[in-house]
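retry 2 of 3: previous attempt timed out while embedding glutamic acid. Reduced batch size to 1 and resubmitted. Inputs unchanged:
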Amino acid sequence: MSETHSPTRRRLIDLASIGASSDSENNPFRITQRQLDAAAGILHLDPAIHELLSWPLRELHVTLPVRMDDGSVKIFQGFRVQYNDARGPCKGGIRFHIDETIDTVRALAAWMTWKCSLVDIPLGGAKGGIICDPRRMTAGELERLSRAYVRQVGHALGLEKDVAAPDVNTNSQIMAWMMDEFSFMRGYNEFGVVTGKPLALGGSVGREDATGRGVSLTVREAAKHIGLNLDGARVVIQGFGNVGSWSATLLQEMGCKIVGVGDISGALYNANGFDAPALQKHCRANQVIEGFGQGDKLSMTELLESPCDILIPAALENQITVTNAPRLKPRILAEAANGPTTPDADPILQANGVYVIPDFLCNAGGVTVSYFEMVQNAYDFYWDLPTVHKSLELKMVDAFHAVQTMAERYKVHTRIAAYLVAVNRVAEAVRLRGWA
Ligand code: GLU
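retry 2 succeeded.
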């Protein structure tokens, strides 16, 4: 192990020192390691456990030949990182993205580990990714790519090992193909190998909007905590895919006004508030918000800096940085995306009094209902929607208050507090199993 990888060397104790580290590049995996270091210092974590939790347990790098519609064969690269399974089988989504890297997947797998621990479900963390541009692929090509991926990583998947799910640019149809390919490999139906499946194939009711619902529930709890009235509260959302659009719709139901939205096609602002379900319908039909025909056009930079009470980054990593953070003054930053804020931006937001709902708390609703889906698959007995909603609400509210209590007890930022709760539980499992 090189010196730069030694946790004792890397140990830092607060957000400001994370931001001030000489290692200031925005490599998401380095960011997760530095965040873990901060928590490990406060928890006085055993150095061997700290070191173990700083690295993925296993990772697969795969090469995928796929027959394209024009008859040619294209070669794709993919990854599956199983970060830690001390608390149960690995769990996490698969992303299709042109800018995917192994370090992004490692970071996302680490965050899945902390996320599952934080909402206290008996699962570890994993993530998968394929470098591809799904917008430029046909349904047939996507199906063949999905099946090729499962043929390569399938031996490492399974109910007892690692359960996949949708993430950026993947959906229930892709999960259905993956489950089907895996079932062929096994020789029998194994619905539970992926979650986020269509209802007809063992999916759970309430899975589709689960991440957005979790976001809205944590926003509700944060608003109560800081005394913000949600009635008329102005919300700006970056990213209007599954998570962003459901967060918008559900927050509007709670009384919020969705004043700004943006995606790869541009951004729109409407001080009177958009009709979130109508915008969601438009996006489903057109893939992008462009052409919605309401609101003033803005750049993405202007969108993030527009006046609002609740800012929700629901797209990709590293959107809130040292450059734009000084101009962001929402009361609540609800991190629906994974890793949207760089460590250097955190102390700036903190100084401006922004209440941050950290990513692996804010967006934990998806994996929570994925876990409910696994339970239903295992028993072959399916829940009704009120049961899913109630169970999700209990998990999200408990996790929110566990983080808030930790933040108060140790007088730390909510992000560090979330790590304290999550890392402590994983460390306990590692200790009890005798791994370190
Ligand atoms: N991709 C989602 C996440 O980042 C859900 C993962 C899952 O359901 O396993 O939390």
